[in-house]
Specification:
Elements (H helix, E strand, L loop, with lengths): L3 H11 L8 H11 L17 E3 L2 E5 L4 H9 L10 E4 L4 E5 L11 E9 L2 E8 L11 H5 L23 H9 L7
Antiparallel strand pairs: 1-2, 2-3, 3-4, 4-5, 5-6
The chain binds heme C (HEC).
The site of heme C (HEC) has 27 residues, from strand 3, strand 4, strand 5, helix 4 and helix 5.
Amino acid sequence: MLSKRIVLVLCVLVGIQACDKNAEVIEATVVAESPELKIDADSFVCLNQMTAVRHYFVDNLSGDLAATVAAAEATDGAVFPPGSVVQLVPTEAMVKHKSGWNVATNDWEFFELDVSAEGSSIRNRGFADVVNRFGGNCFGCHIKAEAKYDLICELDHGCDPIPVTREMIAGIQQQDPRCAD
Ligand code: HEC
């Protein structure tokens, strides 16, 4: 019979895989070491195919849509999970990378898209240097949101306002050219 102490030493020597109780730790490690999130033009779809949360749309490229929706629905702010996609209008998107990917942007990457009936193409992507077609720097505005909101601006989180009303935004959302069937 192996004593508990020897089993413990074996676990350490052979690696934590030998210990069932560490299965959760192993899983977490594998997720953390998974390659960068793959994001290309096909990651962005017609807004109607995303999930509407109040006035904007969300998706999750890593399959954890429920966690993204929960973060979006939290009225007092929440940290969005990796894989989250957030869009207010068809041509601008924020995508959340894995934790630690870019500390300055809370792991968000900003995208400016070109959209047409053929789909999306990426015009510009990055973190602090992406500028929209009106000359505004995405990060420069979104970083002003109070920390608890994870760079989500809405109307009252501390960002500089955009000159587009919610009514106009609803119209722009309905005219997403990618939604034509
Ligand atoms: C002038 C400041 C400003 C700039 C520049 C800007 N945004 Fe925003 N953004 C806002 C504000 C304010 C809202 C909220 C509007 C609302 O809820 O009606 C918003 C909303 C959003 C949302 C919906 C979630 C949220 O934060 O409320 C996304 C996604 C987004 N912007 C992405 C971008 C991207 C990508 C760029 C650059 C290509 C960009 N924004 C440039 C201020 C800005």
